[in-house]
Each structure stands twice: as C-alpha cells, then as structure tokens.
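Appendix B, Record 12. Input sequence as logged:
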Amino acid sequence: MADAKYDVLTVGNAIVDVLASCEDDFLVEHEITKGAMNLIDAERSAKLFAAMGPARIVSGGSAANTAVGVAALGGKSAYFGKTCNDDNGALYKHDMQAQDVHFETQPLETAPPTATSMIFVTPDSERSMNT
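Logged structural output:
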C-alpha cells in the first residue's frame, strides 16, 4: 500500500467542544448531572450557551481527535463527519484543515446545526458534558 493517499481515514461525529469553568451551584441551577455525559437537544444547548461564562471553543469528537493525532505524528489522515453550513461548521472545517487533516465533507444547508458539547468544569476538575 505504498501508494495510499492517507495512512488513516476516520469517520465520526463532528462536535464542537465549548469548555467553561463553573461552580457546582451552576450545575444544580441548570439541572446538569455532575461528571456525566448528558444528551441534549439544540434548544437546551442554546440556553446553556447563553447562561455559561467565558468559554474556550475547539473542534472535537473522538474520530476527529484520532485524525488530528495521526497528523501531529507525521501521518496523513482524512476525516468524514457531518457539519451544518453555520459558524460552528466553518470553525470545524478550519480547525481540521489547519491541523493538516483532510476534511472536505459537504455541510448541510439547513438544520440541524453543527453538533456542540457544552463542557462545564468545576473547581475539582470534574467535567460535566452536555452534547
């Protein structure tokens, strides 16, 4: 396979991670199970985003993270994952390509929006994910 264009092709969920610090009372107030991965819909995601403090936004998802890792180690990687034609979708494509991962999946033109995971980190370093 000396002619292979890529060393690794990954397929997964394109998820934009939104990380913010918070206190335990924020989790209680917003009925977030501490330390768990909670599945939420787009409406709840928008409400949590509006309520959170300053955040760091990075492209993620386990398959994408694997492709980025392969590229960081000098391999040639490609990734398939669905985004929407929205700001997060554009951010996602930029991040993948900036890390030398081939990502050319055509975005959806309408809903649902690009997936996000609101990750709240409490002072004890516990992560509570809302994807």
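The mean pLDDT is 94.
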